[in-house]
Every structure is written in structure tokens, then in C-alpha cells.
Amino acid sequence: MQFLKLSIFTLFYCLSFSSCTSDDTPPTEASSNVAAEVFKDISYGTHAQQKYDLYLPEGRNTQKTKVLVLVHGGGWTEGDKTDMDGYVTLLQESHPDHAIVNINYVLAAPPSTPAFPNQFLDLQKVIRKLSEEKETLQIKDDFGLIGVSAGAHISLMYDYVYDINDQVKFVCDIVGPTNFNDPFYTENPNFEILLNFLTDAAAYPENTDLATAVSPALQVSQRSSPSILFYGDQDPLVPLSNGTFLANALSESNVTHNFTVYEGGHGNWDLTSLTDLQFQLKQFINLHLPISN
């Protein structure tokens, strides 16, 4: 996913944050005039990779300060939350009143450490922890998920399957795999081996069709959150057909969505396309996770 990260950084530049700390302990008290704060590497589990960075805006409170959650890519086996730092910069500029969470999850190391459903459950743990601490943090437990590649897949799966309390209000899917029954995957002679390595079959009922169970486009329902999709028409890793299939599934279930196709591959799009992505995402956040002053 290195080229995707580099493409994003051609659009977004790094900022210096006026308030930052490496402390991993959130504040224990809140006041009506709270300052902006940044907390790095907050643990949400016992595994070393179960950490997230938390960016809290100035003047936040439990009535208005909703949360944007970033989920990195890397083929479920690689990647790091630092890959999403460009998005943090973008969101702090365009949505200064939102809290931002940039997460790591336990990377798969087949066959000993599978990805599914563990990585969906890691995202669940993050959201539960933030919800439990909302009074202390002075945030509202309404969330928007922004995922890239494997991170988009994780985000879509969480919303479409695991978000039983409807805390997620939208999902942004940037080049995420959505349908593992697509011939692009099934015609790969190693597909079954890879699927079995990535999936903990014991976590699913006996005789479950695993490809279907971990395909978010096959889990869409009327309860699915509004979704905004971005794909490339020459993507060698995630076929455009996956984006089209998801868009059609959302249409059939009358779920609000936007679907945009850019010229290029797995996120390595030109500056015009990346600028358009930024604009569309900003509008989508304003519509589905608005801040009321």
C-alpha cells in the first residue's frame, strides 16, 4: 500500500500540532473550556498492536463532539496507523470540531493469527472503549469510519454486521475488497488456501461459506449505514467489480451511498481525483456526522 500512502501525501502536508503528548492515559476530568489534546498509543487490549491515537478538539463536549475513526490498509497482514497520518491532517483542517481516532489492529500472521473475525472485533473493542469513556473524554459516541483497502473492508464489515447499536453513522470505503465470491478472487488457484489462512473458521458456525461471511457486500441490509465508495478503474489488487457490486447491493437495500470511479489503480490517482475525494468526503461527513454548535 506504499503507493497509496505516497499519493495521499501529494495532497496533504504535515502540520505541527500545538498540543501533543506521548502519554497513553486520557484525561480523567473534563471542563467546559477543554483544550485540544493528542494522546498516542492508547491501549485497548493486551496485544502490543491493540493501540490507537486520539485527537481531541478544543471546546468539545458530550453533546456535539462526534468521532471519526481511521482504519489503515495493508492486506490484513501489514500496515500501521502512521499510514493514515495524512488523513488526520486533512480531517483536522476540514473538521476541526470532530474527535479523530487512528487505530492499529492485530495484524494477521497465518496460520497462527487469523484476520477474520479478529480485526472486526478489534474495531469493536475500540468503539466500545471510546463509548465507555465518553464522559471522561467529553465526546459523543456517534462514529464515522474511514478505511483504506483492507481497512475499508474491516470498516464495512463492522458496520454491516457488528454495529448492532447503530453507533456508526457512515462508512467511507477507499478501494476496499467487498465480495470474495468475485471471479477475480475465486479464479486465483491459491484463493481457498489464503481464505482459510486469513479466517478463523472456528469462530463461525459449522459449514459456513467463509467467502460469503467475510464479504461486506453480501452482508448489506436496510440497517447498513450511508456509505461513500471510491475505486480505481485499473486496480490490480481490488477489482472495480467489487465497488460496483457493493454499490448495487446498497441500491437494492435503499441505503444512501455515493460511488465514484477514478482513472488509475489502487489509490494512485492524480491530484484532481484526490482533490475530488477530499471534497466529497468532507460533504459526506457534514451530511451524516454533522457537528451542531
TrEMBL record:
InterPro entries, per the entry: AB_hydrolase_fold, BD-FAE-like_dom, GDXG_lipolytic_enzyme
UniProt keyword list: Hydrolase, Signal
Signal recorded as keyword: yes
Domain BD-FAE-like as annotated: residue spans: 53-250
Source organism per UniProt: Cochleicola gelatinilyticus
Molecular function in Gene Ontology: hydrolase activity
Keyword Hydrolase tagged: yes
Protein name stated in the entry: Alpha/beta hydrolase
Segment forming the signal sequence: 1-21
Top-level taxon: Bacteria
